[in-house]
TrEMBL record:
This is FkbM family methyltransferase. The keyword tRNA processing does not apply. It comes from Paludibaculum fermentans. Keywords: Methyltransferase, Transferase. Signal peptide: none annotated. GO terms for biological process: methylation. Residues 98-263 form the Methyltransferase FkbM domain. It comes from the Bacteria.
Length: 293
């Protein structure tokens, strides 16, 4: 561990966390050579490049990737440009919907790109990730972001979200609770869009680990008011033997085509997940503002 377990056990409690923060900051700076800071503000936080990153598992990390920890804000912006803005080019004042917002890694770039005149709707199902997402937005002044703690589905239901060792892989499912799952309310995005008065969406991103098969049918009406989309399919997880429910690429392509989008994929990209990012541009995008609800 990068901080001795006995030190964490001794100091990670009320009255001692400021000392643990000092110890951790010294260790992080010595290891990274960068002015990273560790602090406690309701949860453990890493601060680098002037940006605060809430991190509940901070002291559970065996060996941090210091290059990532010290340049995470830069990585967030570069990743958004690469993955989500490959076709869609954001403008000030745009409205973005992020279904599967995680801990704010894409919300950070979305918020910057649309500016104070724009708006980002960030939807995250897992309660821990949602708590981190809210804190991330609060700490970094992302005032143009509104968060919702629900799962997007085709039929309203009470569901569960599984907690995996790599939190980015958490997924929503039906069935019984397990020791590693949390209950979550499943709603259609169409109902959320109506409730929020979303009459136009410039870009809708969805990255929900196979649940896109259930979520997309509940977005159909809103899709007719959306100019650009990028849906992450997850066939590569099926290919790893994690279950055929993750094989969604064909469904995503058919659904978006039926909703009036021209599709673009990067089939030759060597990264195992990028060819499964399905970008869509509405064929009648010039008139999308005039589409009815």
């Amino acid at each position: 561990m990068w901080i001795a377990e006995e030190t964490v056990r001794e100091l990670d409690r009320p009255g001692s966390r400021d000392e643990l923060a000092r110890v951790a900051t010294r260790a992080a700076r010595a290891a990274s050579g960068e002015p990273i800071e560790i602090l406690w503000d309701g949860m453990w936080i890493r601060r680098a490049e002037g940006i605060s990153f809430p991190d509940p598992e901070l002291f559970q990390t065996a060996q941090p990737r210091w290059d990532r920890w010290c340049h995470m804000a830069t990585k967030y912006v570069c990743d958004a440009d690469d993955y989500w803005f490959h076709v869609y080019k954001p403008k000030l004042g745009d409205v973005i919907v992020d279904i599967g917002a995680g801990r704010g890694e894409d919300v950070f770039a979305f918020s910057q790109k649309v500016g104070s005149e724009g708006h980002v709707w960030a939807i995250e199902a897992h309660p821990t990730n949602y708590r981190v997402l809210n804190r991330f937005c609060e700490l970094n002044g992302l005032a143009n972001v509104q968060t919702l703690n629900v799962a997007c589905v085709d039929v309203p239901a009470r569901l569960h979200i599984e907690t995996l060792p790599v939190w980015e892989s958490n997924f929503v499912r039906s069935g019984d609770a397990t020791p590693t799952s949390f209950p979550v309310e499943g709603v259609t995005f169409d109902s959320l869009a109506a409730e929020m008065g979303l009459d136009h969406i410039d870009f809708l991103k969805m990255n929900i680990e196979g649940a896109e098969r259930q979520a997309l049918p509940g977005c159909r009406n809103a899709m007719m008011r959306t100019a650009h989309v990028c849906i992450a399919a997850h066939d590569f997880r099926a290919g790893r033997g994690e279950g055929e429910d993750f094989r969604t690429l064909g469904f995503v392509r058919e659904f978006l085509t039926d909703c009036g989008f021209e599709l673009i994929t990067r089939d030759e990209d060597p990264r195992y997940y990028v060819p499964y990012h399905v970008h869509g541009v509405r064929r009648d995008a010039s008139g999308v503002d005039d589409l009815g609800s």
